[in-house]
Amino acid sequence: MLRLKTIRGFVSFERNLLILGSTNAAMSVFWNSWYPFVPLYLSYMGASPTIVGLIFSIIALASSFAYYVGGYMADRFGRKVPIVVGGGTGCICLLAAMLTSDWAAVGLLLVLATSLFSLQTTTPSLMIVESVDEKERGKALGNWEFYNKLGPVIGPMLASAVSPVHQLKSLLFLSLVAIAAGTAIRAVGLVETFGRGPFETEGEQASIRDRLRGSLLIFLASCIIFSLSGGLVWPFVSIFASEFLRMSTAELGMMFSLNNFAILASGMPAGKAVDKFGPKKVLILGYFLACATNIPWIYSPSPSFAILFSTVSNVFLEFGGVAYQMTIVKMTRQETRGRIMGGFDAMYVMTYSAGSAIGGLIWERASPRFLFWVSALLAIPMGLMMAFMHVDS
């Protein structure tokens, strides 16, 4: 009995969460078995490195726009609509990509597919928090994060059993089946959580503008700073680790694997911490410490210490990520929550992408270590801004 009570303290058995989580885990596992190898596949088909980079830049921009569109659809038509429409239409594009052998067509179809799938990125979090009691929301979001991180952990393991570049179409087919089946299950099994009257666009847009003048604007600005901090250094982590920390390829692989496992294991405890201490405290501590651990990492005396600091940083990152979602929920009304969360996610991606370009300039014109110092020190203005915002209950 005590063990069951302990399990229920961390695990949520709410219907919408179980449906969204289980289907997302299956879809994400198969997606991550092939998607990371798309650049190699396009190159194998004849696309130049410049073209491959352009395709993925377009994917990032189109997906960020789709986050907001998905949030708008969730506020306009209900939470289920972007989930079902995004999954269903994305499957059509994925099927077409599987049937063509022209790199240009594959690239275009993948842009369309990822954009359509991105319509449903924001909505599950909204549906989950609206399905549970307010006191259980942190735990539910922590559970959702756990399901979310299964794919990046298990998917590459599946890919390692085959040759992902030469067997990409087979893996893509399995992914297509998983997404189609998951979308059908969601269409039938999910219970809509959003009930509303007529869509009063002008009034609600005014409400959003009013909210953005206060704490929500401070929160948005602080999140942009945090996203910039991460974008500055992420593309250069493996390069710095190899050239300055003398980490081998095997040690790098171990570091990234442990990072993923740390994030996976931290989701549920993060949710409990948010419920117990409130999202603001967990958000500030999580994001601040995730940035600050850049400093000991770049001075790691050995690969083992580098792996340790990186793993700890990702634990803090996951705690902050769960608190981030809960903070938006507490600071918004249900009627405008989809658009605001979608807009936050879109700004996050765009700032992260811009940060990567800026990071390259700092790396070349200043020094690699200075780049990581800049990223870490950005935690100070971010934390101060978050400290002054008011999180509504």
Distance between the termini: 33 Å
Number of domains: 2
From the 3D structure, determine the CATH topology of the largest domain. Answer: Growth Hormone, Chain: A
Largest β sheet strand count, sense and barrel closure: none
**Which structural class do you get from the secondary structure elements?**
mainly alpha
Topology:
Layout: H1 2-10, H2 15-31, H3 38-45, H4 49-77, H5 80-99, H6 103-118, H7 123-129, H8 137-160, H9 168-189, H10 201-212, H11 215-233, H12 237-243, H13 249-277, H14 279-292, H15 294-298, H16 303-331, H17 334-365, H18 368-377, H19 379-388
Helix pairs in contact: 2-8, 2-9, 4-5, 4-6, 4-17, 5-6, 5-9, 8-13, 8-16, 11-17, 11-18, 11-19, 13-14, 13-16, 14-16, 14-19, 17-18
Description:
By secondary structure, the protein is an all-alpha fold. It folds into two domains: 2-189, Growth Hormone, Chain: A, CATH 1.20.1250.20; 202-388, Growth Hormone, Chain: A, CATH 1.20.1250. The chain has 19 helices and no strands. The chain has helices at residues 2-10, 15-31, 38-45, 49-77, 80-99, 103-118, 123-129, 137-160, 168-189, 201-212, 215-233, 237-243, 249-277, 279-292, 294-298, 303-331, 334-365, 368-377, 379-388. Helix 5 (80-99) packs antiparallel against helix 9 and helix 11 (215-233) runs antiparallel to helix 18. The longest helix has 32 residues, at 334-365. It is globular and about 55 Å long. It starts with a helix and ends in a 5-residue tail after the last helix.
Write a compact overview of the structure shown.
The chain is built from 19 helices and no strands.
